[in-house]
Design a protein that fits this description.
The structure holds two protein chains of two kinds. By secondary structure, chain A is of the alpha+beta class. Helix content of chain A is 46%, strand content 10%. In chain A, strands 1-2-3-5-4 form a five-stranded antiparallel sheet, with helices on both faces. In chain A, a hairpin with a 2-residue loop joins strand 4 and strand 5. In chain A, helix 14 packs antiparallel against helix 15. The relative contact order of chain A is 0.07. By secondary structure, chain B is an alpha+beta fold. Chain B is built from five helices and four strands; from the N terminus they run αααββαββα. In chain B, helix 1 packs parallel to helix 2. Chain B is elongated. The chains are: A alpha+beta, B alpha+beta. At the A-B interface, helix 10, helix 11, helix 12, helix 14 and strand 4 of A face helix 1, helix 2, helix 3, helix 4 and strand 3 of B. Strand 4 of chain A pairs antiparallel with strand 3 of chain B, so a sheet runs across the interface.
């Protein structure tokens, strides 16, 4: 069995030269290679993850292996095939080539472990252990003529394997709960398989695209750097977003989309208001009033329905905000603001503002909201709402006074600020 | 030897079975997760494309650059908003047009109020307060009064003063009148319903 861990380190660090020995401490060797030679590939696969693509030195190194095991016919065959593969693929032999199996540096390495590894190379050609049917194609496409290598679960580019924790490689189980790239990372097999999927697909793309040489002409020399960069981008995006709900990539993207929409709406609204202010004095409100009245009766219902039906993903139609002087445009905007206990939704169609306030704790906010509405010069037309379980929910239909230049975000921010303040104040007292 | 081999065989068999079983389990185990993983990737991809579709400037079609472009664009939009707000606030403070509008604002509600009063009278809407007990400490309250600026605030102040907790409320306005229907919960026993009613009516009528 393979007792010496230093020989085999499938987790190369970035620094190639020193990499191969580095992770030995993270390496629970004892159970790793306790495999009978005749075992099927799977268990071995799980335990052994060979290095990433940049360490393709695997292949040249493997060639260097057999110095000590010539007695093994299998190994010879394997080597031959490996040689063939290497030649076909023309991979450069990297300087850490010799490091892979560490034959040269560890002469006292027993031969027993290596036959285990290599004998596995000789395993039947079928990619049955692999989840992706693409794999064999891809492998073929990228000149992997030797299928059994697949059994080693060789991920040429596992973009999703976290770069810092290599113990997972060896354990075969993706114990990396610290994966930043996979917040929902679960059991290892699934991850690994997925990694292989995209990793190998990506690898093949790389190979086809870039030829067979080293990819020094990319901005990132290592796959790891690329992954880190991508993670950084996600984090940066997350920082920009006001209230990121969850931390996983899909949510970040979704929040980003919503935030972009909201910002676009706000920009439109403000542009409209600025324009209106600029030319509002000249036109006085007469024209606008006429237009508005006309539009109100026709379009108002439609617009309001449209807005009410809108999801957060959709933008209001483009005819909504235009130069005020040019055409009969209805001002329209929509915002949501959420805090820990309060949600505020403000929708403006022309001069009507609909405000929805949902309070998750039972603190009566009506008084304060009404005061805010007075301050903001919103004329209250209709209020409905009440207590629903532990929450309060209210809907306010208001109208903006003529000439008032209030905008949606101001309303929303003010309302939520007041409500939260009141909530904070009321907390210790637990009044109503 | 025979005994030895016989001994070994079952072990080997079982191990093989076990390993086969493991392999099958692995396969079974892998496939549902494979589907989930595929769906997850698909979802991520869809969202990435959606994000890209919202961003006008796209440099590259790689994941990293899509996210990066989005970041730049969001930054741009935030700047736009900030600038527009500044412009807007500057304009707010500035010119005589604003003053005109402000006076208009002040005037209009008052004008409206007098009109409304007349309307109310025309339609025969009368001011009214009703207060009925509907449960142990629950009351139903209905108020019809003339619509004025800040009337809702006044109403809420009165509620707080009386210690009425609002369970639900509906407020509508029409033709210069305002109608408030509300269920309230009280904490202290109400001594005199009539008195409370009068008090409410008086408060709602009063001018601030």
């Amino acid at each position: 069995m393979y007792e010496e861990s230093s020989c085999f380190d499938p987790n190369p660090m970035v620094d190639n030269n020193s990499g191969f020995c580095a992770a030995e401490t993270t390496f629970p060797v004892s159970h790793q290679f306790q495999l009978p030679v005749g075992s099927t590939t799977n268990s071995f696969n799980d335990d052994l993850k060979l290095p990433t693509m940049e360490e393709f030195s695997v292949f040249p190194s493997v060639i260097s292996l057999p110095n000590s095991e010539t007695q093994n016919q299998n190994i010879n065959n394997n080597n031959h095939l490996i040689n063939q593969m290497i030649q076909e693929s023309n991979w450069g032999v990297s300087e850490d080539n010799s490091g892979f199996f560490m034959n040269t540096s560890h002469p006292n390495t027993t031969t027993t472990p290596i036959p285990d590894l290599l004998s596995l190379l000789h395993l039947p050609r079928c990619s049955m252990s692999l989840p992706s049917s693409n794999l064999s194609d891809i492998m073929a496409g990228s000149c992997f003529t030797y299928d059994p290598l697949c059994h080693l679960n060789l991920p040429p580019q596992p973009p999703l394997i976290p770069s810092n924790d290599y113990s997972g490689y060896l354990l075969g189980i993706d114990t990396n709960t610290t994966t930043t790239q996979r917040d929902e990372s679960n059991v290892g097999d699934e991850n690994n398989n997925a990694q292989f999927d995209s990793g190998i697909i990506e690898f093949s793309k790389e190979i086809r695209r870039k030829g067979r040489g080293k990819r020094k002409n990319k901005p990132f020399t290592t796959e790891r750097e690329r992954r880190c960069h991508l993670n950084e981008r996600y984090e940066a995006l997350k920082l920009l977003i006001p209230n990121p709900s969850k931390g996983d990539r899909a949510s970040i993207l979704q929040d980003g989309i919503d935030y972009i929409n909201e910002l676009q709406r706000r920009v439109s609204e403000l542009k409209y208001l600025v324009e209106r202010k600029r030319c509002g004095g000249r036109h006085k409100n007469n024209e606008l009033d006429n237009n508005i009245n006309k539009n109100n009766s026709n379009d108002h219902d439609n617009d309001e329905d449209d807005i009410d039906d809108e999801n957060m993903e959709k933008k209001p139609e483009s005819d909504v905000i235009d130069q005020c002087s040019s055409n009969n445009s209805l001002r329209c905007s929509w915002l949501q603001r959420k805090s820990k206990v309060t949600e505020v939704d403000v929708r403006i169609v022309d001069d009507e503002v609909t405000i929805k306030v949902v309070q998750k704790k039972k603190i009566n906010c009506l008084l304060h909201v009404s005061k805010v509405l007075d301050q903001l010069q919103l004329d209250l037309y209709h209020v409905a709402g009440g207590q629903i379980g532990e929450h309060y929910s209210f809907l306010f239909n208001t109208k903006i006074y003529e000439g008032s230049t209030i905008y949606a975000s101001a309303i929303a921010n003010r309302v939520i600020e007041v409500v939260d303040k009141h909530y904070m104040a009321a907390l210790p007292i637990n009044n109503y | 030897m025979g005994g030895g081999s016989r001994f070994q065989e079952p072990v080997r068999m079982s191990r093989r079975k076990q390993v086969t079983k493991e392999k099958e389990e692995d396969e079974n185990f892998k496939s549902p997760n494979l589907e989930a993983e595929r769906r997850r990737r698909e979802k991520l991809h869809v969202r990435l494309m959606a994000l890209r579709s919202h961003v006008p400037i796209v440099t590259n079609m790689t994941k990293a650059s899509i996210v990066e472009d989005a970041i730049t664009y969001i930054g741009e939009l935030q700047n736009n908003v900030k600038n527009l707000l500044e412009t807007f606030h500057e304009m707010e403070e500035a010119p005589p047009e604003t003053d005109e509008e402000q006076t208009d604002q002040m005037i209009k509600p008052e004008v409206e109020t007098s009109d409304l009063k007349e309307e109310m009278k025309k339609l025969g809407i009368e001011e009214n307060v009703q207060l009925c007990m509907i449960g142990e400490r629950k009351f139903w309250l209905k108020i019809i009064t003339e619509k004025k600026a800040g009337i809702f605030t006044k109403f809420m102040e009165v509620m707080r003063f009386l210690g009425f907790e609002i369970i639900d409320i509906t407020l509508t306005t029409t033709n210069g009148a305002i109608l408030i229907c509300s269920s309230v919960q009280i904490h202290q026993e109400l001594c005199d319903v009539e008195q409370t009613k009068d008090f409410l009516l008086e408060v709602m009528r009063s001018n601030p």
